[in-house]
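Lab manual, section 2.4: Encoding a predicted structure.

Procedure: take the sequence of the chain (204 residues), apply the prediction step described in section 2.3, and record the output as C-alpha cells. A sample record is shown.
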Amino acid sequence: MRRKRVGQPTEEQKLKSWKTKPMKIQKTPIEGLLIIQPTLFCDERGYFFESYNKKTLEKQGISTTFVQDNQSYSQKGVIRGLHFQKPPYAQAKLVRVVLGSIWDVAVDIRLGSPTYGTYFAIELTAENQLQFLIPEGFAHGFSVLEDNTIVQYKCSRFYHKESEGTILFNDPTLAIPWNINNPIVAEKDLKGELFPSFISPFTL
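Recorded output:
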C-alpha cells in the first residue's frame, strides 16, 4: 500500500494556497483612500507577490485603470509634494516602496467633502509591502525616511505639465508631521500655494 506523505506542503500546494488568498483592502478615515496589502508567497528562497492585478482589484470594487508608471530615487530627508493635477488631467495614484521607506501623505482637496483639508498618512516600506491607493481629488506627497529609497507609483492619467498644482508641504493650517529634520525640498515645492488661499478645482 502506498503511504500518504505527511509533513510540509509541496511547492505546488503552497502556490495553490497562495493564489486563493485575495489582496487585503483596508479603508481609512477619509473616504476613497485605501491601503492595499498584497499576499506574499514566501519560502527559503525569498518571496513572490503580485504587486498589481487589475482583475483582483476589480473583484473588490476598485476599477481604476492605470496608464503610467513612475519611479523616484531619493535620499533620507527629501520631501516631495504636495502635488496634484487639475481636471481633466487629474490622477489617481497607487503608491508603493521598492527599497527603503517613506511617510506617505494624502490631503483631501475635494470641495464638499466632510474631510476637506484633512490629511491621512501612512508609512510605506519595502518590508511591509503596503500600497496606498489615492483617488483623484487629493494632493499627494511623501518624506523619505531612509537613504537610497525607491518609490514606484501608478497613475490613472498621463503627466500634463500645464495641469500641475502644488500646495506648500509645511502649510501651518494643514500641520502635517513629516517625521524628519532638516528637509530637502525642491525650489518648485518651496513655492507651493498656501492652503487658506487655495481654490480647489475638485468637487465631491
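Check your result against the sample. Residues 11 and 44 are 11 Å apart (CA to CA).
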